[in-house]
Amino acid sequence: MSAQILDGVTVAAKLNEETAERCRHLTARGVRPGLAAVLVGDNPASRTYVAAKAKTCTRLGLYSEVIPLPTETTTDELLTRIATLNQRADIHGILVQMPLPPQIDTPTVIRAIDPDKDVDGFHPVNVGRLALKQEGFIPCTPAGVLALLEHYDIRLRGRRAVVLGRSTIVGLPLALLLLHRDATVTVCHSRTSDLAAVAHTADILVAAIGRTALVTGEFIRPGAVVVDVGINRLTTPDEVRRYFGDNPSRLAELDKKGYTLIGDVHPRQAADCAGYLTPVPGGVGPLTIAMLMRNTLLAAERACRP
Ligand code: GUN
């Protein structure tokens, strides 16, 4: 069997088109959706992510503001910045890029964001709203996974879903979302015994653990839907060959950039036995930014609701 690819680039483009259209409509009524991204320190990956988010805002017609702060920023200084953003009428969404430097009290910072501007869906109020199926903001990566499955008409009701990983950003909210769609959900984590056997029971298998190609063929029931949320880097030709064989484009990418991306799923073994598979890159990743844009649009639409 060769798995059907769940193409995140195409689905994200479609969602972004809709977001841009609704954004034009709202802007014509005098409200341009605005996103503020706070970036503390100079973590290169965080900088890349924030730049990509800001660029997508501009492309879709949203207002975007990046607030860079020095690595030594204190919790109080960050709280003052957030208080100002909470008050601003032109900012509908606030995101504080994670991880924050160690001197900063991350839970206090998250709690300081107005829940109605918390487009990451990290605030305890939004976590509670999600658990209770109330209107709020759903974290972007799990929302993206759901959007991808919905686009391809993949049924969830009554099916067995296994989520590998219980992070508050991905695994936990995704488990809730799948449960709300009547899947039978199992969440696995670092203490789960016989991970492969549990994973093998899944009709829908989601890998969100951050371990290169942990999910090998023995984890996958033939025909299962495999969603790979992992983003890991391979940095040597030997590693690239181990997972991709002599794939010339991967080896060329390694040569050019010094790395190539791989998920938590073994790409060739999964392609051989899954029914559907998200690629890395080009699977869940593009959906994450698309859902951030969508959440910011929703925040603006809700702010001008009568
Ligand atoms: N760091 C890694 N993923 C995310 C995310 O979705 N939002 C924020 N704010 N930081 C992150």
Summarize the structure.
This protein is an alpha/beta fold.
Report on this structure.
The chain is α/β, with parallel strands linked by helices. The chain folds into 2 domains: 30-114, Rossmann fold (3-Layer(aba) Sandwich), CATH 3.40.50; 140-285, 3-Layer(aba) Sandwich (Rossmann fold). 45% of the residues lie in helices and 15% in strands. It contains 12 helices and 11 strands. It has helices spanning 8-28, 44-60, 75-87, 106-112, 124-131, 140-151, 171-180, 195-199, 237-244, 248-257, 267-273, 284-303, and strands at residues 4-5, 34-40, 63-69, 93-96, 160-164, 184-188, 204-207, 225-228, 232-234, 260-262, 276-277. Helix 7 (171-180) links the parallel strand 5 (160-164) and strand 6 (184-188). The longest helix has 21 residues, at 8-28. It is globular, with a radius of gyration of 20 Å. The mean pLDDT is 97.
Keywords summarizing the entry:
306 residues, binds guanine, Rossmann fold, 15% strand, globular, alpha/beta
How large is the share of residues in beta strands?
15-25%
Q: Which outline best applies?
A: globular
Measured between the Cα atoms of the first and last residue, the distance is 53 Å
- How many distinct folded domains? 2
Q: What is the CATH class designation of the largest domain?
A: Alpha Beta
The averaged pLDDT comes out at 97
Strand order of the largest sheet: 1-11-8-7-5-6
Structural class, by secondary structure, is alpha/beta
Q: What order do the SSEs take from the amino end to the carboxyl end, as H and E?
A: EHEHEHEHHHEHEHEEEHHEHEH
Q: If helices are DSSP runs of H or I spanning 4 or more residues, what is the number of helices? A: 12
The amount of helix comes to 40-55%
Let me know the CATH homologous superfamily of the largest domain: NAD(P)-binding Rossmann-like Domain
CATH architecture of the largest domain: 3-Layer(aba) Sandwich
Q: Which kinds of small molecule does this entry bind, naming each only once?
A: guanine
Largest sheet descriptor: 6 strands, parallel
Ranges where pLDDT stays below 50 over 5 or more residues in a row are none
Total beta strand runs: 11
CATH topology annotation of the largest domain: Rossmann fold
Nearest-angstrom radius of gyration? 20 Å
